[in-house]
Structures are given as structure tokens and as C-alpha cells.
Amino acid sequence: MGNADYVYPSTNVERAHRAAIPPPQPFLKSLKYNLKETFFPDDPLKQFKNQPTSRKFVLGLQYLFPIFEWAPSYTFNFLKSDFISGITIASLAIPQGISYAKLANLPPVLGLYSSFIPPLVYAMMGSSRDLAVGTVAVASLLTASMIGNEVDANQNPRLYLHLAFTATFFAGVFQASLGLLRLGFIVDFLSHATIIGFMAGAATVVIMQQLKGILGLDHFTHSTDLVSVMRSVFSQTHQWRWESAVLGFGFLFFLLTTRYFSKRKPKYFWVSAMAPLTSVILGSLLVYLTHAEKHGVQVIGYLKKGLNPMSFTDLVFVSPYLTTAIKTGIITGVIALAEGIAVGRSFAMFKNYHIDGNKEMIAFGAMNIVGSCTSCYLTTGPFSRSAVNFNAGCKTAVSNIVMALGVMVTLLFLTPLFHYTPLVVLSSIIVSAMLGLLDYEAAIHLWSIDKFDFIVCLSAYAGVVFASVEIGLVIAVAISLIRLLLFVARPKTFILGNIPNSMIYRNVEQYPNTSSVPGVLILEIAAPIYFANSGYLRERIARWVDDEEEKLKSSGETTLQYVILDMGAVGNIDTSGIGMLEEVKKVMDRRGVKLVLANPVAEVMKKLDKAKFIENIGQQWIHLTVGEAVAACDFMLHTFPPNPLKEDSEAYNKV
Amino acid sequence: MGNADYVYPSTNVERAHRAAIPPPQPFLKSLKYNLKETFFPDDPLKQFKNQPTSRKFVLGLQYLFPIFEWAPSYTFNFLKSDFISGITIASLAIPQGISYAKLANLPPVLGLYSSFIPPLVYAMMGSSRDLAVGTVAVASLLTASMIGNEVDANQNPRLYLHLAFTATFFAGVFQASLGLLRLGFIVDFLSHATIIGFMAGAATVVIMQQLKGILGLDHFTHSTDLVSVMRSVFSQTHQWRWESAVLGFGFLFFLLTTRYFSKRKPKYFWVSAMAPLTSVILGSLLVYLTHAEKHGVQVIGYLKKGLNPMSFTDLVFVSPYLTTAIKTGIITGVIALAEGIAVGRSFAMFKNYHIDGNKEMIAFGAMNIVGSCTSCYLTTGPFSRSAVNFNAGCKTAVSNIVMALGVMVTLLFLTPLFHYTPLVVLSSIIVSAMLGLLDYEAAIHLWSIDKFDFIVCLSAYAGVVFASVEIGLVIAVAISLIRLLLFVARPKTFILGNIPNSMIYRNVEQYPNTSSVPGVLILEIAAPIYFANSGYLRERIARWVDDEEEKLKSSGETTLQYVILDMGAVGNIDTSGIGMLEEVKKVMDRRGVKLVLANPVAEVMKKLDKAKFIENIGQQWIHLTVGEAVAACDFMLHTFPPNPLKEDSEAYNKV
């Protein structure tokens, strides 16, 4: 009672503020605004405004090719830094490229090709200064499993290769289209939790695949799920090669030790960056000297000398394989985009510059389209390589050019050196890189903050490990979407209470010291009112009112006279929602309870007005704040005793 | 400036309220609460609480069979009313039943069977007092087109018939399962707008199909889309029968006139209710006397005498047809549910009693399962028949029993009378019923209130008319869902301003008389912060801040010192959203702008606390209301001049 007394004298119904209907807007204007917010939220054309045509041309060129923006101010000091970082990432790119190409069941030299042309394209078109371009394990695995379902890489290597190029082409087309059509936000639908689970699952799968190399097995399952792989490994225990396993675990130990060391002392980042190349050199020397290739240690073998051959004519656009290529392209393209853009954004935030997601997508797309025509497969900006690039002190995308030149020299002169490189070393390199993706700490963090995100993460992981990479992804995205839909379908409703000595009303569960107002039930609806929840809300509001009346009846104090709906958090309403409010109004009238609205937002107010609901409920029963609504109810309760009011509202009902 | 001065003396930072973290809840308790709200929002077990076992049994029986609830208090007066309304709807049910069975390409007698058993089941299990059970045109058409795709009704009528029973069986199983699994809310996903467009589209398609009967054509397309039907009609103009057309339009005119009359004078509801049966009798007499059946007027022909034969053994559960039956069952089942439940609810609201959606679904499901075993096809509660029932003054479901008895008498003794009934009369009956479903006024209403709902409605209509019933439905549901997702993916953000002489802050577009606070930017985010929008919100907040800084720079007055985010409408947040807030905080720190939060709700506050974001931002920068947040900022601005503060926040950044 106390707070009601407090509220009462401080306002009166006359002076209270009115909830306003926003000034009417022409339909086309509001449509234009909404389309702009949906597709151009970053306002990319802002800088073009009020510029002469020649300037517009230069700006446009700089927009598509950021190199024209930063190249003029490039200095020798930048070059020094970029040279060092470029050489460092080249030494990482060569062994990683070969390893991932093997993972994709493609000729190892493709890994080198893919570290030559795409980085050059990105250096011209990309806007990140820290991204290092290259192939990634997850996309390689996906290529192997999705194209492998259609064509066997061992039986028909040519067709398999051409399909990989075609998939890369479609990935590029898809990426560039997303960027051009301003649909970059589709990537946002892969939530943080999905990506953590998915990446960890993919890493697990990739590590399991390496058992083939480490155990020196000749035959291996084409499936990627845990059960098939384990069955394949343990059904041929007699084929295990101890020489291979010893080498593998030895190098893995070496790689992990150097990584641990570099992590502890970031100044020595180059130790872990150089470790893979060192392993390759050591491994090759060892095999060459001991002739281990004749004792069951498999080696890379002949690598073709020379730069990327053209592959445009190899693209396959004929019917039975086209669908596979497009499907593989789209899925790998999205995954690659998600990783590349997240990596670019993180480093940009670190160094405080801006990355335009849609522009980056065009750059990635162009890079993969050009790549698919020059014997490369899918590339993006892998996290590990970019981190090394960043730690090595890169300043601009020139470090990518330096890396490309390093790979070029390798391709032209050094490929014979890899003849004796044992496959098991490549497996060790992959395993050591993948262990970093098993981010169990992030999963624990998700559990502690948001259980639902943890479930999403876990389903993505389990889906990838026990079914397949695509299924895991689909499950995780589906669960995430269901969560969004559930938020709308089952909106939260709260009872509000008065915070002592104020006109503020808040959720009684969050603020236990609030007090209720006798005869008045205040409900907050915390989501837009749409068709998907209008049925639920009708039931829920009725239940709140039932419960309140029961409570009041048992206490015998007073009867329920007013229900105030706080609409502040109702961002929008559709015709089903308005229908629901009309029903609630009718039901309340019949029960002799007055329905009052507080703080409807512009959009809702506009629609309620058009649907004549404001007339129906009465303008004076829509208030600007809950406090004023309560004050008005309180004023009426004190001025007219409950009973006549009930009759009044019944009379109203008959009109 | 004025309002800032006004706000400043009225509060100080010490006295302001704190935003509270809600008391911690055990995980299992909150999980249980959420599950209950999702699946048991109507708390169906409430009445069972604290009752002895015998009472619980009675209540359970009454829950499943509401007839036990109302039968004991049934009076003779009720019977009089129910008898009149039952006879009225029987006279409507007989010709409509035969017509719709023809529409479904099923033997006409099935329409009578379906008006005998299912109404009896519903009378025991249903909770609506006004619903009249029967077959509906849309579901009949869907059955014809979906099963017709698999089996030709003319070439293999037996299999077609059995598949129709099987589809009805699965529709019933699906409906009952939805009810038992408490998934009734799935029906809510068919929005009001979808249903209007869909119904109008289906009515158009059904009317087009009647051209066959009215023009007396022998051959007709199996497709339902506008283009195919028009091509079929105009490719055989030489086959048109003028006798048939004259009869058809004559009866159509008669039916529409009686309907118009009854609509103007509701007391004479029976005029339009009796009109179809009158048409059938008149038409049959005419044909019998003129022998028109020998001059191109097609008649129903032989109708088998006797009650429903059992059909349980006819259900087809074998492989090639099972999928079709299940698909047809699910789609027709959902459509039938949507209509039946909406109809039940509308009349219940009129008479002020309660309908439990999930319970109704179980009743509909049982009715169709029993129906499928007794030679009936899909039934529900059609709007037209229920409206006649209501107008005729029905009191309880006994009117359904009276109707069933009327149909039974017809089946036992009167079927030979329908031998000479011309098909064209049935077509006229269908067309006249369907014209009422073309609710163009509702579509105009949608356009004036909510453009998006209008688009949904129009796409459903166009999809049904130009493609197929299923495609129209899928398109409309997909667009509706995209709207929900867009609401979350592109949340509204507003600038808030101070309402004069108050501490209230509201959207400046809705309340143009608000004034801004110098040096402080107040933003409201009007949706939950989820992965799907965190990228967008990061960009959008940055753009608001850019715009504000530019505006301040050009006016040269002051610099931006504070950004207050009003989180009152942010119903929830996930880990991606928290990550976004952390990024915004970092960026703001770097720009020397302080981030302040106002009014986070319980759920958000809890998660921000767990993620240590509250520590990060500082408890003193999270306020209960925007007003208090502004007062605190204002206090700081007056106490410390801007410059030291900027350095301070930069120093903060380095920590």
C-alpha cells in the first residue's frame, strides 16, 4: 500500500504523458529505410557522396582493390617487416600446403600451387593487413569426403581433380555473390558456439584420419565418422608399421614442444613457425640416408617442377557431377568464409582498423575463382598461419606477396627435395595443427555462461564426429534457428512490481524488494507479438490473471481491477498479434477487469492505431510509462470504488 | 541543455538504484520451468492437484471425454435447441458431403459415411459446443491432388480409395500425436495472414475445378494450377454443354440469393441452410422428369444403401504408397486442425467458454483414426457448417449426434433418391460455398495494417493458384519464418531523447518533442542479442556513434563522452552477443567514449555477470533506468571536465 500512496499524490491523470503515434511515413520511404538496414547496414557508399566523378572512380578502384589505397604510402620499413613475416609464413605454408593437399586426396603439389596465386590475388583485393592466405584442413577434409562420395580419388584421379577445381570455382562464385548481393549476414548465422563445436569436431575427424599415415596403413575407410575409422584401424592391426609410428610420434613430440615453447615465450614465435619445415627436412634426410622408404615408410615421391598450369578447361559443368561440385562449393565456401572473416576481423580489432565483411567476401570469391583456373583448390585465411604472420610483425598484405614468391622459388627449383619426405611427417604436422583447434576451454566457458550455446556446440561436435561434417553443421544451424524461433514462440512474461520510493516498475523476480499494487496486475511482455506466439500469450496472460485473482481471493483483501501490459519490449506486432490483443481485451471486459497499455513503441503504436485498437481500448488507457499507468489506475480506484467500475466495464462490453 | 540542468540536481550518483543480478537458480529448476512454459503453458494438470485418486480418475475421464462433464446436467430445453440445429446441419451435410466426396474423386457415398461416424466420436471427445463435424473442400481437393499424383482414381479406384483411408488414418495419428506430445503450438505457425491467403487460393482452385461439372466436360486436367485448368477448359470448347451450364448457373444464382437474404436477415438462417438440399431435390426432380441424363447432364447414379462398412483391413502400409499416404495425411491433417481449432476457438470466445487446443487435437485425431477404419475420409470442423449450427441455436455437441442420426436415416433408406441428382448441382453447391472463402476484405485490412502480412497472404494465394496447394503453403510458412528471423537478424535501434520535464527517455522519432543530452548518446536495442544479429549490432552501434561524433564536430559544441545502451528490450543474450558487447566496449574505450548500460533484464544480467562483463565495464556503469544513467553521466561531466576523462579512459585501455 505504501508505494501506492507514494505514487498517488505525485501525478494526476490530467498531467500524465501520452504515448504518441509516430508521425506517418510514406510507405516507400519506410520500405527504403528497411531495405537499407537489411542489406546496407554499413552504408558502404557513404564516402562516395558529394565527390566529383574522377574522384568517385579512384574511390571505386580503391574500394575493389585496397592495394591502391595503401601502396602509395608504402615505406621501406614496412617492407623489412613484411619480408621477415613473409619468409616465416612461407616456411610454414610449404609443408602445411603439401599436408592438406594429401588430406584432400589431391596431388601434393596442389598445396604449393594454392599458396602461390591466391595470396597474390588477396594482396590486391583484400582489406586485412594480417591475414595469411592458404588452404585449411577442414575445407580439405570436406572436399575429400564430399567429392569422394561421388568419385573415387584412387580409381579416377583425373575426374576427382577436375571436380575439386570445379567445387573451388563454385565456392568462389558463391562467396563473391554473397558479397555483391550484400548477403554477408548469412555467415552470421554460424554462431560462435556452432563454430567452436564444428571446428573441434572437424579437428577430431582430421586427427583420426591421420592414423592412416602414422600407422603406415595402405587401406583406409572413406568414411570420416568415429565408428568407421576405429573399425578400419583395429580390423588391420597386423598391418601397423612400428617404424612409421615411431617417426610419427617423434615428430609430433618435437612439434608440440616447439609450440609450447613459443607460446610461453612469444618472442621466439619463429621456433614453432619453422618447426614444420625443419621436420620435413629432418624427415627427408633420415629417409634418404636410411632408405626407410623400402621398409614401409611411405614418401611423397615425384613432385612436378614448374609453376601452376592453367586449369580453366578442366572445370566440369556436366550433369551427373555438377550438383556435387555446387554442393561441395557452397558448403566449403561458407566454412572458409566464416573462418577467413572471423580471423580478419579479430586482427583488425587488435590493430584498430576496419574490415568490411561484404568486401572481404568479394576478395575471397575472386581469389578462389582465379585459383580454380590456375590449378589451386579452396583457400581462405587460416587462423594459425595468420597468427604467425601477425606475431612476425607483418605490416601489410605484402607479406602474402613475399610468401607467394617464396613458394614460387620452391616450385621452380626445390620440388625434387621433397621426394623423400615421409608422409608420416605430414601427418604429424596436421595432428599438431589440429590439436590447437580442440578448444575445450571455450566449451567449458559456454557451459558456464549459456547452457543452450553449449548444447549447440556439443551437437555440432557430436554430429561431425559420429555422422559427418555436413550433418554436424546442419544440426548445429538447425538448433540455433530453433532457439531463435523458440524465443519468439515462447516469449517471457514477467510480473512487475514497484521499486520502493520511485515510480520505477521492474520484474519482481529480478528485484525481490519490489512491492505490488493492490488491485492492479502489471505484466511485461518481452518479445514481439507475432502469429507464432499470439496463441501462447493469450493463454499465458489469462493464466497470470487467474493466478492473481486466486491469490487475491484467498487473501480476501481486494479484487483485481486493472491489468497493465508493459509493451516497452514488444518491438513489433503483426495482425495475428493485434487479433490476440483484441481477444484479451474482450475477455478482460467480460471479467470486469480493465486492460491498460504502457509504453508501446512507435511501430506497435502505428499498427494499433491503424487497426482501430487504440479507439477500442480508449486513448486514455495507453500510457507512456508503467508508473503513470499505475498512477492513473490508482487515481480511478480512489475516486470510484470498485463495484460501480465493474458495472461500468460491463456496460462498455455491451456497446 | 535545459533538460540536462533539470535532471542534474534531482539525482546524484550515490542515491541511484542499481540494476540487480537475479538470485541464482539451480540449473534443473530453471530447465524445468522453461520446459513447462514450452510444452505446458496452459497448465492442464492444475485441476488434478490435491485430489483423491477416485476424483482424479473421474477428472481424467472427463478430461478425455468431456461428454461426462456436461451430460449429467443436460436438460430437455437443450435437447429442443440441439434437435433443431442438428436437423438443419444434417440438411446441409448431405448435399455438401456428396459434393466434397466428388471433389476428392471418391465415391459420393463416402461423404455421407463421413458425416455419420466422426460426428459421434467428436460429440464424446470434443470440447466445443458449436462445432459441426464434416468434410471440407480444401482437404478434399488436397487428397485428390496428392494421392492423384501417385494413383489414378479412374484407372485404379480401389487402390485410390484405400490410400485415402490410409491418409486419413495418418492424419488422425498425426493430429492425436501433436496433442499428446503437447506440440499444438505448431499450428500457431500458420499465421492469420497465411490462412486467409491459403483459403482464398484453395477456394479459387476449387471453383476452377467446378468448371468441369458446370460445363459438363468428360475429360479434365489433373493439375490444379490456373494455367493448366484454363488450357484444359478452352482447348475443348466444342465439348461444352449448354444444358449443364444453364442448370449450373441457375442453381448458383438461387444459392447465392438465399445466402444474401439470410445474411441480411439472420433470423432466416434456415433459408440458406436448406437451400443446398432444396437444390438437390429440385435438380433431381428436373432430371427425372425431363430425362436430361440422356442429354449430356451427368448424374450421381447408384448410391449403395446401408451404413459404413468397416475399412480397417483396407489400410495400405506397403512401401511404394506409404510415403504418399503419410505426406498427404500430415499436410491435410495440419490444414484440417488449423481450421477446426480456429473455428472452435472463435465460437468459444463468443460464448465465453474455454477450448484447450491440445485436447481438441486429440479429439480430432481420434475422430479421424476411427473414421479411417469405418470408410470415412478426413473430417474436421468446417466454418460454414459450424456457423449454421451456431445460428440455429445449438447448445451442446448433441446437435452433432442429431445430424449423425439424420445422415444414418438417409444412408439406410433414402440413398436411391439421389440417383438422378445432377452433378452440376453439386458443383453449384461447392462454388457457392467457396465464394465465401474469397475474403478480399480481410486482405485489404492486412494491407492497411501490416504490409508484410499482406505479402505473406498474397504469396500463399499466388502459390496455391499458380503452382499447387502444397507449394503455396510452404511459401507462406517460409516467408513468415523469414520475417521472424529478420526481426532478430536486423533488430531496430533507436536514439532516445529526454521528454521535457521528466526523467523519461524515449525514441526521438516517435516523440519529436524530446531533447538530446549534450555529450551523451542514448541508444535503445529492441531485440535479443543473438549470434544472428551481433555482427549487425556491432556495425550499427559504431555507425550511430560515428554519425553523432560528426554531428557534434560540425556543430563544434562538445565531444561525445558517453554512450548509454538501453537494454530494457533485450530479452536475452547469447555468448556471441556478449562477445559483441566486449568488442564494442574495447572500441569505445579506444575512442575515449565511456560505455554505460541501462536496465538489463534478469536473464541478460545473469549472463553478463557470469561472463565477467559486469566487472569489465564496472558495476557503477550499469544503471536501473536511462534517466539515472544520464544523471550519472551528467554528474561526471560537471565534476570532471572532458579532457582528463579521455586520458583516464585511455589509461584504462592500456591496463
Kindly describe this structure.
Two copies of one chain form a homodimer. Helices cover 63% and strands 4% of the residues of chain A. With 655 residues, the first copy, chain A, is mainly α. The first copy, chain A, has a six-stranded mixed beta sheet with strand order 2-1-3-4-5-6. In chain A, strand 1 and strand 2 form a beta hairpin. The longest helix of chain A has 33 residues. The radius of gyration of chain A is 32 Å and the shape is elongated. The first copy, chain A, starts with a helix and ends with a helix. The interface between A and B is large, with 88 and 88 residues. Chains A, B: Pfam families: STAS (PF01740), Sulfate_transp (PF00916).
Annotate the secondary structure layout.
Two copies of one chain form a homodimer.
Chain A: H1 2-10, H2 27-39, H3 53-64, H4 67-70, H5 76-103, H6 109-113, H7 117-125, H8 137-148, H9 157-180, H10 192-209, H11 211-214, H12 226-234, H13 242-264, H14 269-290, H15 319-351, H16 357-373, H17 383-391, H18 398-414, H19 423-435, H20 440-449, H21 451-467, H22 469-489, E1 493-498, E2 505-507, E3 520-525, H23 531-555, E4 562-566, H24 575-591, E5 594-598, H25 602-610, H26 613-617, E6 622-623, H27 626-639, H28 642-654
Parallel strand pairs in A: 3-4, 4-5, 5-6
Antiparallel strand pairs in A: 1-2, 1-3
What multimeric state do the chains show? homodimer
Fraction of residues of chain A in helices? 55-70%
Distance between the termini of chain A: 34 Å
Mean pLDDT across all amino acids of chain A: 85
User: Poorly predicted ranges of chain A (pLDDT <50, ≥5 residues)?
Assistant: 1-15, 644-655
| Helix/strand/pairing category of chain A | mainly alpha
Biggest chain contact: A-B, 88 and 88 residues
Major beta sheet of chain A, specifics?
Answer: 6 strands, mixed
Query: Which overall shape of chain A is indicated by the principal axes computed on the Cα atoms?
Result: elongated
User: What count of helical segments of chain A does DSSP give?
Assistant: 28
Number of strands of chain A: 6
Strand order of the largest sheet of chain A: 2-1-3-4-5-6
Kindly give the count of domains of chain A. 2
The percentage of residues in β strands of chain A lies in under 5%
